[in-house]
Amino acid sequence: MAILKLDSLKFFLQLAWENKCLSNIKYSALSEQLDEVGRMLGGWKKGLEMKTPPK
């Protein structure tokens, strides 16, 4: 669920940038931070999948 919300946030961030609501610098800074959050969420998801036995 958190990954889905992150993807939505990234989409709306890009929309705001394309519509000139954000400067390139702010977009870049926010985008980098969201990418880092995405890497963390991906790692946590992978860790949980490895601990959970398949059904």
Distance between the termini: 21 Å
Beta content comes to: under 5%
Helical amount: over 70%
H/I helix tally: 2
**Count of DSSP strands:** 0
Helix vs. strand class: mainly alpha
Q: Please outline the major beta sheet.
A: none
Tell me, briefly, the overall form: elongated
Taking all Cα atoms into account, the compactness measure Rg is 15 Å
What order do the helices and strands follow? HH
Report the mean per-residue pLDDT as an integer: 94
- Uncertain residue ranges: none
Task: Please render the helix and strand layout as text.
Blueprint: H1 2-18, H2 24-51
Helix pairs in contact: 1-2
Descriptive overview:
The structure is a single chain. This protein has 55 residues and is mainly α.
